[in-house]
Amino acid sequence: MGFLVGLVLGIAAGVALIVGFARAENSRAARRRQLAATIASFSKMTIEDSRKLLPADLYPSWVVFSTQQKLKWLNQELIKIWPFVNAAASELIKTSVEPVLEQYRPIILASLKFSKLTLGTVAPQFTGVSIIENDESGIVMELEMNWDANPSIILDVKTRLGVSLPIQVKDIGFTGVFRLIFKPLVDQLPCFGAVCFSLRKKKKLDFRLKVIGGEISAIPGISDALEDTIKNAIEDSITWPVRKVIPIIPGDYSDLELKPVGTLEVKLVQARDLTNKDLIGKSDPFAIVYVRPLPDKMKRSKTINNDLNPIWNEHFEFIVEDADTQTVTVKIYDDDGIQESELIGCAQVTLKDLQPGKVKDVWLKLVKDLEIQRDRKDRGQVHLELLYCPFDMKEETPNPFRQQFSMTSLERTMTSMENGSGSNGFNRLSSRKKKEIIMRGVLSVTVISGEDLPAMDMNGKSDPYVVLSLKKSKTKYKTRVVSESLNPVWNQTFDFVVEDGLHDMLMLEVYDHDTFSRDYMGRCILTLTKVLIEEDYKDSFKLEGAKSGKLNLHLKWSPQPIFRDSREEDSLRFR
Which CATH architecture is the domain 439-557 placed in? Predict the structure, then answer.
């Protein structure tokens, strides 16, 4: 009997413990869910919600909520410390900008220096703030600034004729975005090792030049030359990606300084349907291409006279310092001789949109102003090929613009040349300083078919054939005529001996065959960049100058490079 009673009591106690434990777990789970819901609610709280929970008078005076309040506080503090900032910044600007002014000094001037530089009594006003990057490595902040300044800036200008001119820079109006970088983060006050600052974006820069005691307009050319010099000095000294590094805590901050990170190869291929700027005849277009708008870093193409569909096929190379923010810009102008060239249109590509090591072939619509994209006028298009190669990238894909040959391979190739000319050729080659690769080889073009070609005959059909040629060669080939077809199939292969693949172009013109004449249907213009890299590919190409139609092609490349000195006409062939 006692055994049964003990058994029942034990079971009851066990069940009670289990039920109690289950209830405790359920209660804890409920509290956790409630806490998670509370935290989620707090994370979704707005500034107005927080103000309802806690009155503003209970917050410290330095705690502000809205961006406008932050900016108001920041501007008030800047006004208080502006006299000290003025003294420090004036000396910093003078020491850093003066050498750049001398670098871009106009040829008509003998010297250009500051005789006085203070930023005045009016502090700039910050109108916007944003955090671009915030991680363990550092903080990147951007501040939008508006400054209607009253500085005292006097330039000591001496002309080649020995005339000394004190020129005052007045009425400065500036709007732009400054970038501040606080890196690296450290465990001692002020918690960062150095500060980098740079002018990230220049929205507006206006100023006026005045000769003290006279008029600058009395000396022709001085005003425009000085304005260009000042703008170039600002661009070269503090405009991003250039940055000034100010150490706060002693240490090595060379990793924060501006360094090249890669190269950008730009092939300016052609433009089409350009706006005509001339009253008589057609425009004479040329292009300016740049990554940084500095005189010594901008490239100019040749001028194509009297042509609204110019073909340049010119190659330029640029140094890239920040692939995430830099862009490549192309501007097309009409060359008016001794008069100022007139802008036809411009276009821009962001480098971060390029895949490293891959050629990007793009047609860009030209606009009047890169800052104002609401341009509905048709100004034409420009065709570019772009290749970005970071310095730290493994060269899995060959860069046709920068072929590298080791000295061992070169020597071995030269030694193997017939008639014992290898060693002499190698000695001549190694003594040269400026060399380039000529991509010589055989280009095989298979014209496979055409699709949706325009109808040129009364019966709604055409009798198409294709004429193939290289821009730098007189060799031409022609396919057979396919009668009464808008989707002809040719499957014909033609071989071209190409002397300089980097600078040549393949042109395919489609015609409609008639008994006594022919009608032009459209054309395809191809650079050889892609086939130089891939050596074998198939693709479809839209007909230019036609409402519809495309050609299906198969291209193959059999290379035979040549090493040539660009200053000499002779060349050495690699066999």
Answer: Sandwich (2.60)
